[in-house]
Amino acid sequence: MSILLREQEQLIALKLESTYGVDSSPAGADAIMVSDITVRLLEGDVVQRANMQGFLGNQGSVRLNTYVSLDFAIELSGGGAVDTPPYYNSIYKICSHAEAVTASTSVDYTLVDTNLDSGAIYYQVGEHRHAILGVRGTLTWEFGTKGLPRLRFRGMGLYVAAIKSALAGVDFSTVLKPLRWTKDTVPTLTLHGQTVNAMSVTIEQGMSPEFLALIEEEEVILPSRSSTISIKFREDDVTTKDWFEAARANDVGAFAMQHGVDVTNDGRIFEFDAPNVDISNVERSFEQGIAYLTATCGIIPTAKGNDYTFTHR
């Protein structure tokens, strides 16, 4: 019997696993408000059979393994208080981040490379539930004057056959709206110590999730990382800063951004700091007849896990 499954009935619920690949049973309280969902439920290796059998024709194929890939965006919002993590903080943890809460001060995140967290995701389309286990992935932060700040997740997980089961208790009424990214909400945005008048910033964590298929285990692993930043900003007077020369010389310096104003936006402030950033390329373009530069930057760690830090407060 056919049923009506609507696009707007899609839901994502995520809960950290205690044991890798073991369903932690996300509930309605673990739901995350997402957009731009792409879930590919049957990824993996498929081998086409090609034997000589005396006549022409397709011989079919054999699926060797199966995993799930996921891609979705989350509006970047705070926890409502300086020491309250955002409600989607599990996403940070399954993307190789550790969380530290300092009472009455902040929630800080740092990179970790061992003992990585994983999560179970329930992907609901109406009452059709696809459990996706052992999920890990990578993040992209997207900021721009022409859209709401967003966090994009791209990851993989282990396949589980679908069942029919509703997700009860979903309530997004307490989810905060994201702050706009404007001159009134971005008090700090500097590259190599120079304030830039930006139109957009994209920060790529640059993890590379891979599906590992062995005789005794299947696991999503995060074997490498190459973090980058792309910044589009009004071109400066060359006597103030020659960005082309900085790129030619592979200059290295810090990147810092604060989204949200102290006191006024407490509980919704996001800060990102990368102490060692090079500029690999700069390109000029024009918007509304005005010159802009797009700087492509690499985040260069000088010790294990010190690529960057970020904070919600």
Structure classification: mainly beta
Q: What is the H/E string?
A: EEEEEEHEEEEEEEEEEEEHEEEE
Question: Strand tally, please?
Answer: 22
Rg calculated over all Cα atoms: 22 Å
Key words describing this protein structure:
single chain; 313 residues; mainly beta; 18-stranded antiparallel beta sheet; 2 helices; 4% helix; 48% strand; globular
Description:
The chain is mostly beta strands and 313 residues long. Helix content is 4%, strand content 48%. A hairpin with a 2-residue loop joins strand 9 and strand 10. It starts with 9 loop residues before the first strand and ends with a strand.
Short description:
By secondary structure, this protein is mostly beta strands. The protein is 4% helix and 48% strand.
Give the helices and strands, then pairings.
Blueprint: E1 10-16, E2 31-32, E3 34-43, E4 46-48, E5 61-63, E6 67-75, H1 89-93, E7 97-102, E8 106-111, E9 119-125, E10 128-144, E11 150-158, E12 163-164, E13 188-191, E14 194-195, E15 198-204, E16 210-213, E17 218-221, E18 228-234, H2 243-248, E19 252-259, E20 270-287, E21 290-299, E22 309-312
Antiparallel strand pairs: 1-2, 1-9, 3-6, 4-5, 6-11, 7-8, 8-22, 9-10, 10-11, 10-12, 10-15, 13-14, 13-19, 15-18, 16-17, 18-21, 19-20, 20-21, 20-22
